[in-house]
Design brief:
The model has no long low-confidence stretch (mean pLDDT 90). The chain is an all-alpha fold. Helix content is 79%, strand content 0%.
């Protein structure tokens, strides 16, 4: 592998890791290299690898929650008793259902119709403004209700539109239903686990249909870089969220969306 290939691998893995959990849209960033460079597509196997890295990051960061969920789930199965951790686990499952159903029904339509630069750019701007509106008066509740889980899950479906940002729209929904910034971010990141995991499994099945990859070093490098950068972003975001709010991310989304539109229409003049 030459230096240019490594530059592409490192850049794309960093973009995936940094943007997956920040409310700034990973798809909006991943389309920039296609507009600014002539890099070839790294392929579906690489996409699976960086998603595995991102999933590993959130699992490691919330490892205590994972252990508590396992204990709560076991208590529910063994003793038919629902404690606080078991209830949160079920609410996460409930919030995951809408995007599972919508993703199955709309996947082909989204990929063939909505994955365009203008759609991504306008979604980045519009849902950034919605995030700003939701962040104006953050709530104080730390525990989501069953109703909250339904609302957040339904709004997560909007993330199928490229440019929306899955973390951005789920944090927006959490703020709108009255959760605090920290609680909303925590629920959104925990909700990422089944969502990213499910998407990764589907992509992995597509990879296996096409044949086992013959180059593993780029995949391992991509997964590692994405995982380390994603973990750092999750940790920094949660530590700073009460001090910074969402305004810095909203301002950045406005800039990014405007840049994408300028590049897109500028290439067509």
């Amino acid at each position: 592998m030459n230096a240019m290939e490594w530059l592409q691998i490192i850049t794309l893995a960093l973009i995936q890791g940094v943007t997956e959990f920040l409310p700034i849209s990973s798809s909006a960033h991943l389309i920039l290299p296609a507009l600014l460079t002539d890099w070839p597509d790294q392929g579906l196997a690489f996409d699976v690898a960086v998603h595995v890295g991102s999933l590993g990051a959130v699992l490691v960061y919330f490892r205590r929650d994972m252990a508590a969920f396992a204990a709560g789930g076991w208590q529910l199965i063994r003793h038919r008793a629902l404690d606080e951790d078991g209830a949160l686990l079920l609410r996460l499952a409930l919030a995951t259902l809408p995007i599972v159903i919508a993703g199955f029904l709309l996947k082909d339509w989204v990929e063939s119709t909505l994955r365009t630069v203008p759609v991504i750019a306008w979604a980045t701007i519009v849902f950034g403004l919605l995030l700003w509106y939701a962040d104006r008066r953050p709530g104080e509740r730390s525990v989501p209700t069953w109703r909250d889980a339904i609302v957040i899950g339904l709004m997560q479906v909007i993330a199928l539109m490229p440019g929306t940002s899955r973390s951005g729209i789920t944090i927006t929904a959490a703020l709108l239903v009255g959760l605090s910034r920290a609680a909303g971010a925590r629920f959104a990141f925990l909700l990422a686990i089944p969502t990213i995991g499910g998407a990764g499994v589907l992509m992995a099945l597509d990879v296996l249909e096409a044949g086992v990859p013959d180059r593993w070093l780029p995949l391992l490098a991509g997964a590692t870089i994405a995982g380390v950068s994603a973990y750092a972003c999750i940790r920094a975001f949660i530590a700073l969220i009460d001090r910074t709010g969402m305004t810095p991310y909203v301002v950045y989304r406005m800039f990014l969306g405007g840049l994408l539109l300028a590049l897109w229409y500028g290439q067509r003049l």
